[in-house]
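4.2 Preliminary Data

To establish feasibility before requesting continued support, the project team ran the inverse folding procedure on a target of 309 residues. The structure was first converted into the token representation described in Section 3, and no sequence information of any kind was made available to the design step. The complete token record follows.
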């Protein structure tokens, strides 16, 4: 009864007062701008303060209500992406209808970044297709950021490869292969794309498959990418006999056997030599080379036995 009869003043005195840090955070939510809230996100992510991070994300979603100029909308969406709220960033972008040209390209780039970060593959693929403007090869030289490192550097990837990856995630391998084959610049990247596209197209005629793989081999060899050359040759050898002529398989086998010593690939060479009855001695040499040092006959010294008491 005494506790129930406590005055309001006494009740107020019993309530804990917010700390200085809590008051500062409340002021940030109330008065902070985009830059301040973005900087706060970085700190909260580092500390793992999930509850406060969610409050900042909600504030970023409402801090710049529509209508706003494009620059503000893009800055707002960028802040939300950095604050790990990509779905909220997409909602902010929906507030603005960009005009054709540079303005629309800027908007589409943010649209892709937000969709990609939020694993919205359908929306990310749509943004990239619009950036291509009807010509997939336009995406080949467009580099987009996919990872920011602790030292501030950024890893970029070709938008062409990113569109193919989005389509693979959507379980559209045929469409992904078409995208990969749209590349025009010769070199290592093209060799890798062709090799991947051949793997994706299940019903490709054997003659066309062989032609594409031969072209990919030429590109990879010209770039000195011997590991990729080995991968493509292994791909050729993995084809069913009905999908490759005997001459093509024999040529791939010879190439792979010559390449293995060059790239120090004893495992690859052993797999090939085992199929050749005339290569028994070389098979034994490779098996000895690859034998575990701890296995019987291996080259590691036997452990010394402790003397018995």
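Position-by-position output of the design step:
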């Amino acid at each position: 009864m005494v506790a129930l009869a406590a005055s309001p003043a006494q009740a107020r005195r019993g309530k804990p007062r917010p700390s200085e840090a809590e008051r500062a955070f409340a002021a940030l939510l109330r008065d902070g701008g985009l830059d301040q809230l973005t900087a706060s996100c970085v700190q909260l992510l580092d500390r793992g303060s999930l509850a406060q991070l969610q409050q900042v994300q909600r504030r970023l979603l409402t801090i710049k209500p529509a209508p706003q100029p494009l620059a503000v909308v893009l800055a707002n969406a960028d802040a939300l992406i950095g604050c790990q709220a990509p779905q909220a960033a997409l909602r902010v972008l929906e507030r603005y209808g960009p005009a054709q040209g540079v303005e629309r390209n800027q908007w589409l780039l943010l649209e892709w970044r937000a969709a990609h970060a939020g694993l919205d593959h359908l929306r990310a693929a749509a943004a990239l297709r619009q950036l291509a403007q009807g010509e997939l090869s336009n995406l080949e030289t467009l580099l987009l950021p996919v990872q920011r490192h602790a030292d501030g550097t950024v890893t970029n990837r070709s938008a062409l490869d990113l569109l193919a990856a989005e389509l693979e995630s959507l379980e559209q391998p045929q469409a992904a292969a078409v995208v990969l084959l749209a590349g025009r610049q010769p070199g290592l990247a093209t060799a890798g794309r062709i090799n991947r596209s051949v793997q994706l197209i299940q019903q490709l005629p054997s003659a066309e498959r062989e032609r594409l793989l031969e072209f990919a081999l030429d590109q990879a060899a010209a770039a000195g990418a011997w590991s990729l050359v080995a991968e493509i040759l292994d791909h050729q050898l993995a084809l069913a006999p009905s999908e490759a002529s005997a001459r093509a398989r024999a040529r791939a086998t010879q190439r792979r056997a010559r390449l293995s010593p060059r790239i120090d690939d004893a495992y690859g060479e052993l797999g090939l030599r085992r199929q050749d009855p005339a290569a028994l001695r070389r098979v034994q040499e490779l098996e000895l080379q690859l034998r575990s040092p701890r296995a019987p006959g291996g080259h590691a010294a036997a452990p010394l036995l402790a003397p018995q008491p």
